[in-house]
Amino acid sequence: MCTGIIENTKVSGSGKGPQGWFSVDQVSVCFDHPDHAQGEHAVIINFLNSGAGPSARIAVELTPESAKSLVRVILASMSRSRAGQNI
Amino acid sequence: MYEGMLAETVTIRGHKGDIINAYFARPLGPGPFPGVVLIHHAPGWDEWYRETTRKFAHHGYLAISPNIYYRFGHGSPDDVAAKVRAAGGVPDDDVIGDVGAGLASLKSLPQTSGRVGVFGTCSGGRHAFLVACRTKAFDAAVDCWGGRVVMSPQELSSKQPVAPIEYTKDLSCPLLGLFGEEDRSPTLEQVAQHEQELQKYEKTFEFHRYPKAGHGFFYYDRPAYRQEQAVDGWNKLFVFFEKYLGTPG
Fold first, then answer.
1. CATH code at B81?
2. From start to end of chain B, where are the E strands?
3. Residue B163 and residue B156: Cα distance in Å, rounded?
4. CB-based contact B223 A33, cutoff 8 Å
5. Contact B37, B66 (CB under 8 A)
6. Is 90 exceeded by the pLDDT of residue A2?
7. What are phi and psi of A54, to 5 degrees?
8. What is the number of structural domains in chain A?
9. Domain tally for chain B?
10. In terms of residue numbers, what domain contains B210?
11. pTM for the full model?
12. CA dihedral for B126, A61, B78, B210, sign (positive or negative)
């Protein structure tokens, strides 16, 4: 929380962690010091089940360039899908 | 010479009487020993903070590190820390209460010398400065690269409603600040702004800025580690605490 840069959004879906699949209802994205990735800052994305304990979490830490690539490919894949055409 | 310490998790009554846990370490022997309350960093109440608590005990201090993330549940430190981040952090008032509880527990011990410092890194550095301003209870404070001591109006929230720098006039004890010149939170400009505020109110403080170091240069398990700067920083820290807390046991 040194930068305090945090964005949250409600989502609907599932994620798979070490204990198997669980429902995901929140995604938290922050730009802060990573736990594992190299570099002083990273885009840290946590997929959470807000009603479950702290271990109900899928975490990734990406370089800013990687995060932008992720956003691009998500949008690109959706633009090619029938569902995406309705968004 | 025989040397030993006791280190264990304990429970204390934190902010508003909430029971929270804490990691406590002390040298064996009757004392009197000065004390240190450690405020853990944003990555959580983790192994580094346990090690650092024992490090202070090794150097002759009663040391306690309250788990200021206790209210967010239990699990691996990084999982709990993620939950805290998603919630926008911990309220400053809760931290002040929990740290005060850690202080009270140290001062209740028969081995205490009665003089206690507060230490924190990263967000804990910010908290250490904040606690030293908003309470009159500590005899020395160490802020290691605490980000967001200087905050823009947009960064304020219900949990962190006032930028710590606004409390500078109330700083109640000497302050040591250790910063990396390549850090971006806090930036060198923010460190200078804080320094000017401390000078304005004629506070006792010393700030050290380390070249070729960024954020978290004490963390030997992270790429930010800088051996030379870390060793010098620890030396300065122990000299500072000895000056204001007295000779450790």
1. 3.40.50.1820
2. 5-13, 19-27, 33-39, 62-66, 112-121, 140-144, 175-180, 205-210
3. 7
4. no
5. yes
6. no
7. -60, -25
8. 1
9. 1
10. 5-245
11. 0.92
12. negative
Residue A84 has pLDDT above 80, yes or no: no
Q: Which residues pair with A15 in a beta bridge?
A: A22
Locate B187 and state its tokens.
Answer: 């930036």
Distance CA B219, CA B242 (A): 23
Put simply, the answer to whether B82 touches A46 (Cβ < 8 Å) is yes
B194 is catalytic: no
Active site residue B183: yes
- Chain A and chain B share a number of CB contacts under 8 A equal to 83
Q: How far is A68 from chain B (nearest CA, A)?
A: 21
Q: Give which of B168, B159, B101 is closest to B129, Cα–Cα.
A: B168
Residue B153: CB partners within 8 Å, gap ≥ 6? none
Domain that holds residue A74: 5-85
Contact with chain A for residue B223, Cβ under 8 A: yes
Tokens of B89: 């952090």
With an 8 Å Cβ cutoff, are A30 and B89 in contact? no
Between the alpha carbon of residue B70 and those of residues B130, B185, B213, the distances in Å are 20, 25, 31
**Maximal C-alpha separation, chain A:** 41
User: What span, in angstroms and rounded, lies between the C-alpha atoms of B40 and B27?
Assistant: 21
Q: Determine whether the interchain pair B74/A48 forms a contact, defined as Cβ–Cβ distance below 8 Å.
A: no
Q: pLDDT of B186-223, one tens digit each?
A: 999 999 999 999 999 999 999 999 999 999 999 999 88
What is the enclosing helix (H) or strand (E) of A27?
Answer: strand A20-32
Counting beta carbons within 10 angstroms of the beta carbon of residue A66, is it exposed (0 to 12), middle (13 to 18) or buried (19 or more)?
Answer: middle
